[in-house]
Records
---
Amino acid sequence: MRSRKPRAVAAALAATLGLVLTACGSGSTNQLGSGGQDSFQAPVAENPSFEPGTTMAKLSKQGSITVGTKFDQPLFGLKGLDGTMQGFDIEIARIIAGQLGIPADKINWVKTPSKSREAYIEQDRVDMVVATYTINDKRAQRVSFAGPYYNAGQDLMVKKDNTEITGPESLRKTGAKVCSARGSTPSEEIKKYIDPANLVLFDVYSKCADALRTGQVDAVTTDNVILLGLVNESGGKFKLVGKPFTEEPYGVGITKGDTEFCQFIHQSLTKAAQNGTYQKAWEATAGKVSEENPKLPELNTCS
């Protein structure tokens, strides 16, 4: 369930999101900067056994899994120029797949825009969605969530020389045009702070970044860690306002009512947190840009 008051972790993250390193480059799955390559690989269980008839048994037997994710979000879900997938969401999916006995090269990645996530799950186009997917009550009417595996907070991205936009409260009085992704939680939340005519929606955030670059909008809004990746790729042209104003718990979307699969994902995440795999996944991805050192949040009850 989504709270309107940011957790302490979101506030702490805001203080560190201004840290920007060299621009992201393509390359291997975990290569996020212009220098070296991280060697992190999610462990793969050998000959795991599951109760017949469960989602886990089906996926483990077929030896592959289809995962819906983002292809345009640096640090969390990005498809490189060479076709490799990289980001924290990608590694979370690999951790879960690994506990099914499925190696990284047997994961089928499906580009899943924000507006399509519930539909892709309901239509069985994917086995799960790991795509900066905020858990909320409206979405939980159509799908089930495992997690959360990370807590983010909504923020604003503006041009580096912008001094007028200092937070959401400054948007209406400046007449700012704000861009977000169609069907996303941030696109609904920002309506509290701007006139409806000033909201610009695209299917992906990379188009919002292009609109900001060309002056068609004055700000882009979504979760701070997503914006951090876009700032990192902007070559110093963008900055974060650094005042998160919501709480965004990221969950793994699965078929509504699949309690056993939810419990399995929780077990996989808990194991990863206990043996250090969760931390290594962060350090190999978003941790290369953010100084935050997150821990696995308290997991919700599967239902």
---
Amino acid sequence: MGWQERFRELGEQLTSGQITTDEYRERSAAILAEADKEAAKVHIPRSAAWEAPSGEMTQIVGTRDETTIVNNPKN
């Protein structure tokens, strides 16, 4: 079960009164800490870092301007 599913179930336990708000906070913090550990293990290929050193990627689809001018009927 993934962290998102565990988080959803935890929310259901809170809303149904099975756990207190303090228990919810403690358990949700533990779930998020575990999710952070899992995310830190994700390998990012070196080529991806070289292509987008800022963390952003831009895709240029075309260079032709296809702007359409529509007459404003209120003029």
